Amino acid sequence: MIRSDGISFSYGKSEILKSLSFSAEDGECLVFAGPNGSGKSTALGIISGALKSSSGTVHANGKIGYIPQGSALLEDATVKENLRFFAKLSKSSVPETLPFSVSEYMNKKVAKLSGGMKKQVSIACALIGDPQIILLDEPCAALDITFRDELIGIIEKWKREGKTVVYVGHDPSEFYTFFDTIIFFDNPPLTVSRREIDTQTKTAEAFAEFYKDTLLNIKRK
Ligand code: ADP
Ligand code: MG
Q1: Single pTM value for the model
Q2: Which domains does the chain have, with CATH numbers?
């Protein structure tokens, strides 16, 4: 579970987040959507504890696993060395089962991996210590449909296990099956629940239209 009560954040004089409130229960997924630069990554940074809000608080009921937008991996080290490094950081050990096909390229240097493989390793590193809350910042950007479909399956499994997921993404087809709430980063932020979506838009296509119209409306302002 995570809960925020009106968090605000500024870089110098420029206010990035103003009184942002959200919540997600165990087994739920919260999606952050909105134009580039609207503060989605900043909000994830605050949830993770990497950034500190100027006002408001975030409550989280467990360990957090954070998959950042860029790579946080050690490029010159192998996959195995990265996993051991992150296990040491979180005072934990490398799990026996790893997601995706990470166990098949344990001895490869990260610098030699494809973008998709790096993202898989980032996810494996974030899962060390079995976090209750998982933050994913545009995990599918520039990656193929196979990766996307595999990740969708993994997120659905996390939800069944009762984990809380916060997902930043742009393409509604990525998160249509698993989101419970979407927050459109606008001023003020617009929160839309699964129930509202399901009563108004009956199909994935109708949802995509609603989603596009909402984003265009935000951009036009
Ligand atoms: P999003 O993830 O929605 O694209 P970000 O949270 O990354 O947006 O950024 C929100 C705003 O904060 C942008 O205008 C960006 O330029 C600004 N910003 C991000 N990081 C910094 C930083 N370290 N210093 C100053 N401004 C920043
Ligand atoms: Mg971002």
Answers
A1: 0.96
A2: 62-168 (3.40.50.300), 189-221 (no CATH)
